[in-house]
Amino acid sequence: MSRKYNISDMTIVVTGATSGIGFAAARQLALKGAFVIGVGRNEEKCSEAIQKISEESPGARIRYIMADLSSLRQVRDLSARIRSVAAETGNDRIDVLVNNAGAFSNWYISTEEGFELQFTVNHLAPFLLTHELLPLLKNSEAGKVITVSSGSHYRTRIRWNDILMRKRYNCLLAYKQTKLANVLFTTELNRRLGPSSNIRAFAFDPGLVNTDIGLKGTAGIAKWIWQLRKNKGRSPDIPASEIVWLIENVDTPQSNEVYWKGCEPKAPSRYSRREDAAVRLWEISEKMCGVKWFSG
Ligand SMILES: NC(=O)c1ccc[n+]([C@@H]2O[C@H](COP(=O)([O-])OP(=O)(O)OC[C@H]3O[C@@H](n4cnc5c(N)ncnc54)[C@H](OP(=O)(O)O)[C@@H]3O)[C@@H](O)[C@H]2O)c1
Q1: Residue 200: exposed, middle, or buried by beta-carbon count in 10 A (0-12, 13-18, 19+)?
Q2: What's the CA gap between 14 and 25, in Å, rounded?
Q3: pTM to 2 decimals?
Q4: 118 near 103, Cβ under 8 Å?
Q5: CA 79 from chain center: how many Å?
Q6: 8 Å CB contact between 64 and 78
Q7: Which of 13, 15, 19, 212 has most ligand 1 atoms within 8 Å of CB, for mutation?
Q8: Is the CATH number 3.30.70.360 carried by domain 7-289?
Q9: How high is the pLDDT of residue 285?
Q10: Relative to the CA of 120, which ligand 1 atom is closest?
């Protein structure tokens, strides 16, 4: 931690900016003067988000782009559209990418590319979007990639023999694995970027938050459990303000300062610190996304 960054100079991309933590973060960042590019999958919700933020702050610089992040084709298309919107500022630059969008699904759902839904939205989409936006992040004085992980990444592992859980799908284990993947991705991204890079990656743990994430891809008892559980959660405005704090205050993460919760670094799980697992996941993700990072 070293210096205070000025948010009003920044161009910030927030995925999943139509509800919960993502909407609250987009709103707070726009109120602080950032040029915010929100990403949502639903046109009506995108318009509502713009309207709410603009009513509160008529001068807010905010744009929304629609994309379904369960489609890697749409993630590629999204990054091209982000590049052209970001260019409106006159700088081909993104200062912060907040990979926040996340999904939970009771059922095995196969995506356009034939992958499992949670693995795609929660892990492959941030992996690919970060890859595609890296040239713009490199143009920032100090680029940040913040990926919203979860305390559910503790006490789990990657199922290497069936990473998409095609043979035996368990929704909770599938979700936990994606949140572990977020930490492994963040650690490996920092390792590959190297200590002299202008870009730093962080995994953010929002704690238990009162949002509808567990009501969207669920039914029956799972829906009922989340309905009860979410009421014990914090308002989305609190983790959103912690994301804002991270953007404003935190500089180069040391090896043990990759995972942040409540404005403090926290040790992530022992498994998430395994370099062999991070490298293996990275290589699998590259193949699935059809990209090769840092080649040449
Ligand atoms: N809530 C918690 O207690 C908690 C705890 C730990 C971690 N997290 C993490 O926090 C992040 C935000 O979740 P939240 O709790 O704020 O839930 P949320 O209110 O449901 O927000 C999720 C956001 O992701 C979007 N999204 C979902 N699937 C998408 C897709 N296929 N394509 C594009 N966008 C998609 C949603 O769009 P719609 O508005 O259209 O649904 C929404 O904007 C997630 O990564 C989640 O894993 C949450």
Answers
A1: buried
A2: 8
A3: 0.98
A4: yes
A5: 14
A6: no
A7: 19
A8: no
A9: 98
A10: 31
